[in-house]
Amino acid sequence: MVKRTSLENAECPIARSLDAIGDWWSLLIIRDALLGRRRFGEFQKSLGLAKNILSVRLRTLVDHGILKMAPASDGSAYQEYVPTPKGRGVFPVLVGLRQWSEAFDQRPEAIATILVDREKGRPVKKLELRAQDGRLLKAADTALKPRPIAKGRKRASVRT
What we know:
Blueprint: H1 13-21, H2 24-34, H3 40-47, H4 51-63, E1 67-71, E2 79-83, H5 85-88, H6 91-104
Antiparallel strand pairs: 1-2
Helix pairs in contact: 2-4
């Protein structure tokens, strides 16, 4: 297997995040973990993924602190994969991908589920990016600027 270039030291925060969760299997594993799947066999059954690929992806997610290993909740000798706070932080990203797909998919009627508020049973509102004063922002309303320089650090070039 060809080893890909690591992006963990990239200046761009998007590139850094993709180093940890940048392939579809990893995002689908995180999705399943957030839905309550915990065991290797549950992930394999849900995703239909080869054991060797699933093992590598789970190890990577644990190494990046997105999932952690924990004793099985039923007291058995098994270990479970549990989302960490960092892993639960991926939830808005997954919702954004879902909503993007729902808006632009060629066959939205073929999407089997809708995301609803568990308490009210109503569809979740579309994610929005807002300024600190509450204004709705579009991409054209945003810009990147250099982060303030910490003492003893050189300024990096600005990228998305």
